[in-house]
Amino acid sequence: KNPTLCLKRLSTLRGFEFIDPGFSPDWKLLSRLEKSVLKFKKDRFYSVKDWSGVYFLAFFAQASQQQGKYYAKEFHFTKEELFCLSGLKDLPDIIQKLHLPKLLPSEIYEILDPVDLEIIYFIRVITSVSIVTSRIDNFLKKWRNVSLQITGEDLKDLGLKPGREMGVLLHTLLLSKIDGKIQSNQDEIAL
Predict the structure, then answer these.
(1) Which helix (H) or strand (E) holds 25?
(2) For residue 98, which of 7, 33, 79, 132 is within the disulfide window of CB 3.0 to 4.6 Å?
(3) Please, which residues have CB within 8 angstroms of residue 162's CB and are 6 or more apart in sequence?
(4) Within 10 Å of residue 94's Cβ, how many Cβ atoms?
(5) Which residues are CB-contacts of 60 (< 8 A; sequence separation ≥ 6)?
(6) Integer Cα distance of 40 and 47 in angstroms
(7) Angle between helices 91-98 and 117-126 (to 10 degrees)
(8) Concatenated DSSP letters of 108-157
(9) What own/partner pairs with CB < 8 Å and gap ≥ 24 does 113-117 have?
(10) What is the pLDDT of residues 32-57, one digit of tens each?
(11) Do 88 and 61 contact (CB within 8 A), yes or no?
């Protein structure tokens, strides 16, 4: 129920020395994460049932890339954990892009959609820049689960040939829907 408290106890018992004699997690970050998780658990849009990946990121957040490689080698992390850790290097770039003025919803979607959900939640916790947090919230609450009613089969019925162009067209339609330019199935077909 309280991972930070458990980690502090482990630190008191000098349990982190097996990781690295000089290792110490960022306690302020873990405390902020703890408070955020309690808040997010009350909001149905934060659909994470298991926050361990986000705590995992917070635990290793201040590690250098060299330390990260050492930890990965020594502790035989799973592919998922390694993927999660590798996302830490992209945080500054993602935050910088989300900080740009006048982004359309589809542009925010394009920035965040390829990013692992645990990384998105982690960014949401570590940043205090209101424009970044509101854009992440909007992505999670409004745009992440937007889908088209039209399918590739519908486009084939309209005479389009399957292939890359069809995929690009469907993606363009999705982005238009996210931007509010499409409201119905008829709008999708018309566009």
Answers:
(1) none
(2) 132
(3) 152, 156
(4) 20
(5) 68, 71, 85, 88
(6) 9
(7) 70
(8) HHHHHTTS-HHHHHHHHHH---HHHHHHHHHIIIIITT---S--HHHHHH
(9) 113/144, 115/87, 115/90, 116/83, 116/84, 116/87, 117/48
(10) 888 888 887 777 666 667 777 888 88
(11) yes
